[in-house]
Structures are given as C-alpha cells and as structure tokens.
Amino acid sequence: xxxxxxxxxxxxxxxxxxxxxxxxxxxxxxxxxxxxxxxxxxxxxxxxxxxxxxxxxxxxxxxxxxxxxxxxxxxxxxxxxxxxxxxxxxxxxxxxxxxxxxxxxxxxxxxxxxxxxxxxxxxxxxxxxxxxxxxxxxxxxxxxxxxxxxxxxxxxxxxxxxxxxxxxxxxxxxxxxxxxxxxxxxxxxxxxxxxxxxxxxxxxxxxxxxxxxxxxxxxxxxxxxxxxxxxxxxxxxxxxxxxxxxxxxxxxxxxxxxxxxxxxxxxxxxxxxxxxxxxxxxxxxxxxxxxx
Length: 292
Hints:
Blueprint: E1 5-10, H1 19-32, E2 35-39, H2 44-54, E3 60-65, H3 67-77, E4 84-89, H4 95-100, H5 106-115, E5 118-126, E6 129-131, E7 133-137, H6 138-148, H7 153-164, E8 173-178, E9 181-187, E10 190-194, E11 216-221, H8 225-236, E12 246-248, E13 250-255, E14 261-265, E15 268-273, E16 275-288
Parallel strand pairs: 1-2, 1-3, 3-4, 4-16
Antiparallel strand pairs: 5-6, 5-16, 7-10, 7-14, 8-9, 8-13, 10-11, 11-12, 13-16, 14-15
Helix pairs in contact: 1-5, 2-3, 6-7
C-alpha cells in the first residue's frame, strides 16, 4: 500500500456518529498509521471542497460515510495518480458495501483496508459528475424527498416512498438511446445505468453491471406501477429483473412530452430536466475491496 494514509469521516452521513463507525474509524487510523479529518455535511459541493483541500499527499484515502460521500470522493480522486480509495460504510443505503463485499464488523472492515487489494473501477459520468450508478425517474424523486426530509434513515425512507407513490401513475414519455441505437420509446417509471448491480440496502436493481467491463449496464423499467412492484420483489429476492439489460458506452435520455426528468447519482439528486447523457469513464479511480 502506498505510504501516507488518511481517514476522512463525514459525520453528516446517516450512522457516522454511532459507536460501530467510530470504532471502525479508530481501528483504521491505528492500523494504517493514518491522519484523521472530520466534517459533517450533506452538501456535496461543500464536501468536495473540504476533501480536495486535504487529500493531496496521501497514497490512501479512506472515506467513512455513505454512498454519497464516496461518490464525492470519486470526483476528487479521479485524475490524481497514485491515490487509492478505501471505504468504511456509514450511511443508510451503503450500496457500495455489497459491490466490495465488505464485512460488517469493524475489525473485519479494517482487515480489508490493511490488505489493500485495490482495483481500478469504471464509473458513469453525468454532466461531468462521476458515480457508480445513476437513476432517472421515480427513484430520483424518492431520493430527493428523502434528502429534503433530513435523511432520517428507515423512517425517512419509508416516508419518502409513501409521498412518491402518486408519481408512479405520472409516467413521462421518453426516448432512450444506447450508443445511438433507440432501445426504448414510450412511458418510463425508472431508468438505471451503472457499473454496479446494487442499489441501497443490497437491492439487485441492475444485475450484470460490472465495474471492470468498460461499459455501463442500462435497464429501463417502463411501468405501469403494478409491473414495477413485481420487479421490486425480484430485486429483493435477488432474481434477475424482467427488464432487459443493455450494455453501452453512452446513453441518452430525452423526454418526448416536455416532462422534466429527475436524476440521482449514488443517491444524490442532480436536478431535473428534459434530457440527460450518461457516459462510461473506464478505470476512473482505484478502490479497495474484497475482489474475487
């Protein structure tokens, strides 16, 4: 492992102040001989600026936070040679925990960091922002309402879903192109694109997606609501969705009826507008995990 390590703890993440996370951070600091930097924010721009001011000079940067905190770190780390990222999950969704096959106990988590098995991973670029996964449509509405309510873990997530149920019957009409081929034209509940099969809580929303394939995996869930509910059950049961996977280097999403479509990246809402473009960024960063 490259010399010079630091742990960056974002206490704005869902469970970052728990004894479990604090123990993992302290064990990692000792085991790696790492410096510790602490902040508390849910604002991506603020976190990015804070991290960028402190990350230079380190060979290993361990991010203790949620998927959103790690997503910010991707964007700060990309292009910095010799820098490797590690992850101590401290959020609610923790989708990346499942991709990296991270254990749950602090001691086992730190053992993964000490082994330092790092691989280059592909990321998705959305308006220049890098992420493991992005979602357009209904799930981005849920993510936005969850953030607006203060990100109150399971109660907040359940409330965000309940408030978003009426949106399941307000399907925009869209056109989706993958590498210039039209792969969907019509109503859409949800579009997912990424280099990981997992969403938060380990839901397998996009099976077949890989962080080392040089392409993104795309799925369009057209609805209606009852059909999406069946698909959601398949995510929970770890069954392959009926929505087909398309692999592509570039995906374009365009509203056909003028509806502004919201998009989230690694759980953080980017905004809403009538068209979006997603592109692959091969080997964008190096990330420590239990790679098999």
